[in-house]
Amino acid sequence: MSASPSAPLTGVVLLNLGGPDTLDDVKPFLQNLFSDPEVIPLLPPLRQMLAWWIATRRAPTARGYYEKIGGGSPLRRLTAAQAMALERALSARGPHKVVVAMRYWKPDTEDAVAELAAARPNRIVLLPLYPQYSFATTRSSAELFRRVWDRRGVNGVPIVSIDQWHTHSGYLDAMVEQITATRATMPNGDGSPVHLVYSAHGLPMKLIARGDPYQRQVEEQVRVLTSTLPDWATDPKRVHLGYQSRVGRAKWLEPSMEELIHRLGSEGATRMLVVPISFVSDHSETLYEIDILYRQLAAESGIRVFARMASLNDSPTFIRALADLVASAG
């Protein structure tokens, strides 16, 4: 039975970082990123000046990355597809309006608030598309949404935030599904065992020292997810965790993916399956950093068969998991 038109409306906000849609968007995207106080903890005037300087220096190189993956990030399109699929999945549970709020690009938080305010929801669920909680992602995005909603939204609407879901059973089912499917497509090569390499986005150690739970949750997810995989993926000697996307000179989580790939190659590994566990959609970190940079590095290190788990994107299993998260929120 379909829900009554007068039934309470739940607004759902998919929180993500965003990415430049075109090459011309690269510099302003970078400027937005480095203007975030969670990224550069300086007072506003100095932070804005430094953000402009960093973006200006990095933009030419970053444009080259995006040129190699089609001239921009597909993240906006893929997140919009996730929102549409999630809204359909939730429709059987009552009226839902799903919108997207990108932290550093469009549609941004102001856009999401305007769209939701027009729909006049009875409650709002914030759903970060980051499985693990971090100050720099989950907290930053949720706090920004609440601030903007308080200024421009409808007063008195309760807001519930889903802070973490790295061990949610439906999400893990979606991961197992993609890992297994990708493993089935890998060539046998020389028949040597496959090394399962989990790749998580890096984080400065100073955030971990301040109590950020990200590293602990990444490691917990690796343990739980690995325990649900077939026998080929459970040998501790062939299960590894590395961190990617380091920026700047500060100390970050280790080992880096570059260090890990070099080591595995030097130890004789010849087949590798990389599983991104911080990302649920394709974007520059999967399409360029893993698929191009790490693939080349693996070949140079003696690894003959290199594969990357297909991203979840809008897989039906993953969308059902997101719907379950929303339905069980607060």
Assign the CATH topology of one domain: Rossmann fold
Q: What helical percentage do the residues reach?
A: 40-55%
> What is the CATH first-level class name of one domain?
Alpha Beta
Q: Low-confidence parts lasting 5 or more residues at pLDDT below 50?
A: none
Q: Mean of the pLDDT scores?
A: 95
Helix/strand-derived class? Answer: alpha/beta
In sequence order, what are the helices and strands, one letter per element? EHHHEHEHEHEHHEHEHEH
> Count of helices?
11
Q: Which shape, going by the Cα principal axes? A: globular
Radius of gyration: 20 Å
Question: Could you describe the largest sheet, including whether it forms a barrel?
Answer: 4 strands, parallel
Task: Give the distance, in angstroms, between the N- and C-terminal Cα atoms.
Answer: 24 Å
